[in-house]
Amino acid sequence: xxxxxxxxxxxxxxxxxxxxxxxxxxxxxxxxxxxxxxxxxxxxxxxxxxxxxxxxxxxxxxxxxxxxxxxxxxxxxxxxxxxxxxxxxxxxxxxxxxxxxxxxxxxxxxxxxxxxxxxxxxxxxxxxxxxxxxxxxxxxxxxxxxxxxxxxxxxxxxxxxxxxxxxxxxxxxxxxxxxxxxxx
Length: 184
Description:
disordered C terminus; 8 helices; Arc Repressor Mutant, subunit A; 2 domains; 184 residues; single chain; elongated; 63% helix; mainly alpha; Rna Polymerase Sigma Factor, Chain: A
């Protein structure tokens, strides 16, 4: 996706290199933002925040620890969660008592869906559910990491994920009666 030479040129504040990095990464970053931020008017802010943070943090990128694409994906997800928390009246006041454990095959049924179908699923999912679902299932954050990022408890994060799964069952797979918690 992006060479180390290009990254080093960006660190040296080379405007042409920065433009090249932006152009190379913008579609990927926008895809992540589109998943998290349903409101088109907030997506520009999210793009700006994500790239500002990426450029300001380039010196911290360590190719030994992972691929650049994964690194910018995590930054983008963090910026989206921060933007949601800060600007979109994001609150989760849900019961924390329902927090089941999920088995390895809990999300296997998502393999049945195309990327377009998953994106459509996420567009219609309530914002709180969608945010937790993306952070937990897609971006593989732990409930502890999600709780710190969104200033909620880990139990609230688990509860939101549980409710997102129930929502998916009801709205996407309504005829699946034999699905039990932990083995969707």
